[in-house]
Amino acid sequence: MNWITNYVRPTINSLFSRREVPENLWTKCNNCGTMLFHRELAENLNVCTNCGHHMPIGARDRLHSVFDGGVFVEVPVPDAVPDPLHFRDQKRYTDRIKEARKKTGEKDAMLVAEGEMGRTPVVVAVQDFSFMGGSMSIYVGNAIVAAAERAIELKRPMILFSAAGGARMQEGILGLMQMPRTTIAVQMLKEAGLPYIVVLTHPTTGGVTASYAMLGDVQIAEPNALIGFAGARVIEQTIGEKLPEGFQRAEYLLDHGMLDRVTKRTDLKDELVTIVRLLMQQPAPVKGDLPAPEITSDAALQLENPIAPEEAK
User: Which of 58, 175, 263, 291 fits 171 for a cystine, CB–CB 3.0-4.6 Å?
Assistant: First the structure.
């Protein structure tokens, strides 16, 4: 029996079993439960085609989606001290950094790039929530300062996509000090007369909300994004009252004057181009380019020898 169970049966099953379908070909929508084909989902910028639910999107994918043709140049960011407090909880902070870098392939929780968006030169900073919850670190502060300085140098507007759970606890007060530091960077942009536009994505909370994420000249959010400082449960326990439905969601904040717009991700690039060109006092954006007309031999002769109006009569 052991020979049949251990050898014969597995051999037969391996010969006649169907090929397994890779698990990463389909993604289930967390909101409506629809199974979405990965290519279709990627083409729609990780927005559910059935219910419009906005799923997480990587920082680098975000850059590809906003820049023309997905072409951009990364802005160098100064390195930060690896472990200033020699912090250790269940793991060493340096080990957590290594794991996050291996998982995401990024250096830290912020990417900065420059390029054209709708033929409009811009500097864009994107927070990567997949890197330790997008937590605000010294490196993130360095990235925002570098983005602001580059925007001022090139006289370009700056756009920032926020996504974070707050300051990075492993850096303690040094992480919290990025709040005033980034506020000064934003003030530098405003003194230079350059627009600073913030797009708040899900989630944007903690010290990030209390600093650079709420200082934009124009505040835009993606649908149903969670935006706030303290958690809803903490607020309820503090004030002793039940919070209203949808509290700290983008639509609620729009209705109460905290945001200027709530825009779908698929419409975001066009809206950003329009706003940037308006603030920079530039002509309206060109939506698309028509191909050059093909000139036939007869048309070429007519251009070389135009007919006078009298002859045409």
Answer: 175
